[in-house]
Specification:
By secondary structure, the protein is α/β, with parallel strands linked by helices. It is built from twelve helices and eight strands. The protein has one domain: TIM Barrel. The chain has an eight-stranded parallel sheet with strand order 1-8-7-6-5-4-3-2. The protein binds 3-hydroxy-3-methylglutaryl-coenzyme A (HMG) and magnesium ion.
Length: about 300
Amino acid sequence: MSFDYPDKVRIFEVGARDGLQNEKTQIPTNIKVELIERLVDAGVTAIETGSFVSPKWVPQMADTADVMSEIERKQNVSYSVLTPNMKGYEGARNSGADEILIFTAASEAFNQRNINCSIAESLDRFAPVVAEAKKDGIPFKASVSCSLGSPFGEEITPAAVAEVSKKLYDMGAYEISIADTIGVGTPRKTVEVLEAVAKVIPLEAIGIHFHDTYGQALANIHAALQVGVTKIDSSVAGLGGCPYAPGATGNVATEDVVYMLEGMGIDSGLDLTKLIKTAWFISDYLDRAPVSSVAKALKNKLD
Ligand code: HMG
Ligand code: MG
């Protein structure tokens, strides 16, 4: 049997934003800065550094402007931030973000809890953000939460995910991130959703953002690779969770993804040893082991 896997993928590292946003104890800015710089040193070229959202809603991200000004920027690295509205966009622009992520969902119930508006309202709210971003020449991606299932019991159909993805793509998002916010998806559902989305937007514009709550993320990524998706979000040490998705745990760990890709001969451009050291750096700070199996298995082999 042979499959047509891609030769190369792009990892978008979300550990400093999605990974840390749910931490209850405020993490000092200098730790976030060191995390981001270590990840870039490990070869990451696309990285989410934080979010310009209401500090009342997500206090952990309140220092994103400081993080952005303190990191030592490297050329050829895109430093991205998440923005829910114009106020967030202004923060992003002032911080010199290379790109932004706007975000909505395939679940109405989740969107209300996460950004306090319906899916349709969120698209209206993004319209001026998108207009400004285009004027400023800042590229933007868009995320569709709950694409493989909702924490609130609604059925999420592939058609519903495709519909919102198409609207975001038509607004000018260069990539649509299909997010399994609560990590419930399985490979067949993953393929069904990705195939439905690929019928309405180009395959090259599809990214995947899988949380690993049910331990399915690697299997789902493997299924997505077979569909031809080459843009993968992940979070070092498997950090993460969304404060407005009950029960959601971290994103798939970057080092687990890179280990799998290396074994399959797929180039991610990342250095596995440096990633594992970074996973232990942040995990030691948080005083718990990484969720990542690979980081645990290879710890004793680090020099
Ligand atoms: P709202 O209360 O409806 O907004 O919240 P509002 O416009 O009425 O403003 C209320 C207050 O927030 C005002 O302050 C605003 O100035 C302030 P006050 O007058 O009360 O002092 N405010 C802001 N402050 C800073 N930055 C801003 C901003 N906007 C308003 N940008 C809002 C609406 C969107 C602001 C709120 O719901 C919010 O911040 N939500 C963020 C939720 C969030 O960050 N969730 C996690 C990230 S998404 C995620 O993790 C999913 C993803 O990973 C994919 C996946 O896995 O599914 C991307
Ligand atoms: Mg997420």
